Backbone:
């Protein structure tokens, strides 16, 4: 491929990737098989890195592929595979349509201190305390939340609008889907970051990628020794400066023929725009990247780290202390732990590995997952949590565990999932219709897929629920079905460590096939 | 209708009803079979679900006795749970398919199938086998998963349930055919014809919290009554109902009950399940409210074996 075709190839390729990513995050009917979603997400840097650290298997080695790719070709990832990078290119184009000035970049000095500080701090905090900064800054997760929080509701509105119209014509291939489950507070982070990224990309090209994004910074470091890079042909160049103006990364110093490879995202716009064909993308060989040290910069970095180390401590202080399990039923549901999705293993691991990309929230066919507000403490803000007042975990389903790219949710086979106890149902007799109204109900027992909630004789003809924790899997169908308000008469308390439920025992009935009508 | 007319009509109906009851026992008033139908209830045993229906409906004069040319028909099975047909938590798909075919043969313009599922509706429609079966017979399968599909109705005379929201397709169709499956039920002991209407309404929770049995009976007062109740007793879940845990809960009964009187149908079904109909509160309540007849000995029943 000649250098001039590279840009066209980049645009075509990245457009396809972007479309796939959008589809994956708006697929509220779970039409895309998890297998294909996994292919797409395999190469996402942060999810793959987290998965690798957790599972230590090369099956989760997408990030190694990316590192190798970067070693060879530079930050190709940022223009070809990162959905947020591609999205920003789109925004930048729109920016240029609004004001030409927004597309005229020119060389700028790098924000070296900021970007390396952010990288170090993000890594440091993740290793010592937890994943929160990664959750906030990882481009894949920001993109996921952007589509899930803004794109999906719009799609649902459209879906419901067309469902109504088609219904008038007796067509029912679409169906009405409620838009629910996002509390206003959970919109804070997506709104702030979407605005930040959108505005930056609209007027400044790839500034987010070169100033804030920890993945961009890390790959930038690696690309300093990349084998292929953009090169000047000194004989052809007339120093017109068009390349520099066209560079979304503001990394071309055309006067000195110096291209900052650590910021170059391989968009190849410079090559296409050069009237003299003086730029090419080609093999250059490795270079020594020895740095001069700067004491004042180092002090600043150290100070920043110390400052930011305090933040997780504050978050920790706000973490829910695990209260002792309750001894007696009270009328108010007293949940000691939130319920985290199947496949999480333990709440601790889950909180450690989830970047709140929200893919499982979209994929869940029952819409039972919602972004947490403070269920997991501040540190787990936006990580998915089961909301059994809104819906329940459907028995025959493992989709969330299949799509999770980070191993926060590990894949479960259906038979294993059906025996994974993520919480236990607790019955509050004093809230129960059967006791308070002296009428039949049993909605909880009806709903229970394992009959861990069953009915025992009560007064007169009435039966009242009782629970069997051994076979309860904590799916929450009982809680969802319970009609009492404001507090349910049965609720699921989360297992901080998921356990194995016993398989429900079942014997043949003594009723046999009839030979005569009994009436 | 103006208020005065309403009172007048109600009064007239009351007088007529009162006269009928005093003259000849109230069963005759309610168990009003369409002209040409000889039996109040037909019970079939020993065949496949579709073959039993072929035989049974013939005894009632064919589907043409219930569905007129050009009419829109709602076939309402029980599609409550996301399980495979063998576990019998949902109406047998073969039976649903054959009923739809009979409707079209009788000249139905359109046949619709829906249920307000308990489990995730997409999976339940699919895994119950009913979506596929209904479509293959030419019916339209309508979702029931959102309140948007439901319209408010009044139930004059309801003791506990005076108003509710029912699926619009019930109101838009001319004929309602109720196709429940007979099952054990954890709280009401049995579910069949009357209880199948819980899948027509949006807010089941209201029924559960306001005297479930009375609400089930009250709903049967609603003017859009089933022209026909076909109770699937082919595979019968005899315990752990209404969802079931495994195949051990299911007994092969190879039976079917077809009737215009859903109280009679439920009474017969209870006996199939080995439960005293008197113990299933909504049956005697519905009987007392005059919604049907649970005295099977006073009905004209045809029993068929294949």
Residues:
């Amino acid at each position: 491929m000649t250098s001039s075709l590279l840009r066209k190839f980049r645009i075509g390729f990245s457009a396809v990737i972007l479309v796939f990513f959008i589809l994956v995050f708006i697929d509220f009917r779970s039409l895309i098989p998890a297998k294909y979603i996994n292919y797409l997400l395999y190469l996402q840097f942060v999810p793959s890195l987290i998965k690798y650290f957790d599972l230590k298997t090369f099956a989760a080695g997408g990030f190694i592929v990316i590192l190798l790719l970067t070693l060879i070709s530079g930050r190709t990832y940022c223009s070809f595979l990162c959905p947020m990078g591609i999205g920003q290119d789109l925004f930048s184009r729109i920016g240029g349509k609004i004001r030409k000035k927004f597309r005229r970049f020119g060389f700028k000095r790098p924000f070296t201190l900021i970007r390396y500080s952010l990288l170090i701090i993000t890594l440091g905090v993740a290793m010592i305390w937890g994943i929160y900064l990664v959750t906030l800054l990882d481009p894949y997760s920001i993109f996921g939340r952007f589509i899930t929080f803004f794109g999906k509701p719009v799609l649902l509105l459209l879906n419901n609008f067309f469902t109504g119209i088609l219904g008038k014509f007796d067509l029912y291939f679409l169906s009405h889907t409620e838009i629910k489950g996002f509390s206003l507070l959970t919109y804070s982070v997506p709104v702030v970051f979407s605005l930040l990224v959108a505005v930056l990309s609209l007027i400044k090209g790839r500034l987010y990628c070169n100033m804030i994004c920890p993945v961009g910074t890390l790959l930038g470091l690696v690309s300093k020794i990349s084998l292929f890079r953009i090169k000047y042909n000194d004989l052809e160049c007339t120093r017109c400066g068009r390349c520099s103006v066209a560079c979304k990364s503001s990394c071309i110093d055309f006067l000195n023929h110096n291209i900052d490879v650590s910021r170059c995202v391989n968009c190849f716009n410079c090559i296409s725009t050069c009237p003299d064909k003086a730029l090419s993308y080609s093999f250059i060989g490795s270079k020594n990247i020895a740095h001069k040290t700067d004491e004042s910069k180092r002090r600043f970095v150290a100070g920043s780290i110390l400052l930011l180390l305090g933040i997780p401590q504050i978050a920790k202080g706000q973490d829910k202390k695990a209260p002792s399990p309750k001894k007696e039923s009270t009328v108010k549901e007293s949940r000691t732990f939130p319920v985290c999705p199947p496949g999480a293993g333990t709440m601790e691991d889950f909180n450690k590995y989830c970047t709140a990309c929200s893919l499982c929230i979209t994929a869940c066919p029952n819409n039972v997952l919602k972004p947490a507000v403070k269920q997991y403490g501040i540190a787990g803000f936006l990580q998915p949590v089961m909301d059994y007042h809104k819906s329940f975990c459907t028995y025959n389903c493992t989709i969330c565990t299949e799509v999770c790219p980070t191993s926060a949710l590990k894949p479960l086979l259906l038979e294993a999932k059906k025996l994974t106890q993520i919480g236990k149902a607790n019955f509050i007799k004093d809230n129960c219709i059967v006791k308070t109204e002296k009428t039949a109900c049993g909605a909880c027992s009806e709903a229970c897929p394992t009959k861990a909630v069953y009915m025992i004789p009560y007064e007169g003809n009435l039966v009242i629920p009782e629970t069997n924790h051994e076979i309860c899997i904590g799916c929450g169908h009982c809680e969802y079905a319970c009609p009492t308000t404001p507090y349910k008469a049965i609720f699921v308390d989360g297992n901080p460590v998921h356990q194995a439920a016993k398989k429900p025992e079942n014997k043949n009935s003594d009723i046999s096939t009839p030979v005569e009508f009994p009436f | 209708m103006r208020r005065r007319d309403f009172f007048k009509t109600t009064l007239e109906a009351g007088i007529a009803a009162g006269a009928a009851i005093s003259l000849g026992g109230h069963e005759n008033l309610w168990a009003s079979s369409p002209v040409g139908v000889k039996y109040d209830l037909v019970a079939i045993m020993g065949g496949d679900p579709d073959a039993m229906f072929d035989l049974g409906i013939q005894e009632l004069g064919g589907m043409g006795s219930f569905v007129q040319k050009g009419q829109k028909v709602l076939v309402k099975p029980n599609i409550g749970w996301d399980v495979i047909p063998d576990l019998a938590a949902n109406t047998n798909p073969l039976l649903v398919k054959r009923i739809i075919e009979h409707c079209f043969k009788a000249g139905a313009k359109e046949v619709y199938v829906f249920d307000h599922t308990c489990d995730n509706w997409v999976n339940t429609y699919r895994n119950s086998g009913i979506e596929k079966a209904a479509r293959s017979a030419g019916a339209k399968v309508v979702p029931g998963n959102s309140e948007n599909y439901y319209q408010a109705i009044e139930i004059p005379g309801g003791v506990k349930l005076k108003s509710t929201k029912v699926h619009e397709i019930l109101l838009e169709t001319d004929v309602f055919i109720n196709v429940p499956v007979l099952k054990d039920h954890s709280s009401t002991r049995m579910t069949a014809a009357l209880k199948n209407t819980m899948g027509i309404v949006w807010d089941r929770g209201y029924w559960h919290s306001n005297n479930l049995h009375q609400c089930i009976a009250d709903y049967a007062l609603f003017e859009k009554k089933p022209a026909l109740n076909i109770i699937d007793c082919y595979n019968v879940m005899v315990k752990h109902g209404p969802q079931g845990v495994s195949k051990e809960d299911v007994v092969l009964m190879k039976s079917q009950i077809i009737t215009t009187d859903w109280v009679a149908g439920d009474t017969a079904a209870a006996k199939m399940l080995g439960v005293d109909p008197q113990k299933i509160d909504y049956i005697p309540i519905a009987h007392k409210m005059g919604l049907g007849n649970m005295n099977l000995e006073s009905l004209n029943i045809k029993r068929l074996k294949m």
Residues 174 and 316 of chain A are 45 Å apart (CA to CA).
